[in-house]
Amino acid sequence: MNTTTESGDAARGPHDIGGLDLGPIDRTEHPRTLYEMRVDALLMLLTHPNLGAFRVDALRRAIESYSQLEYENLPYYDRWIKAIRGLLVEQGILTDAQIDARVAAIAAAAQQPRDAQGG
Length: 119
What we know:
Oligomer: single chain
Shape: globular
Helix content: 40-55%
Number of helices: 5
Distance between the termini: 46 Å
């Protein structure tokens, strides 16, 4: 989210760090977690042309609209999942209540002993 300064220049959003001296970049590869792979898969499904829930550009817009505090404190894939949730609601695909109810049901099921889950 770029805003304009009093001088008319575009102000940097929290995501816009190109050219800043922030020290060395850690370029080492790390194995992706199951959570990261699932978030990535969810995004691929939702942006696939056959479904077209939204475009990757919309995800970027949503992430770039975060406040400095949100952007800096959310891990990378948490930014994605927050944006995906917001876009699903924005597009009228799901409501916040539907998402909250499903998350609560999954959390409750996770608390049950394995035998009670049927597995």
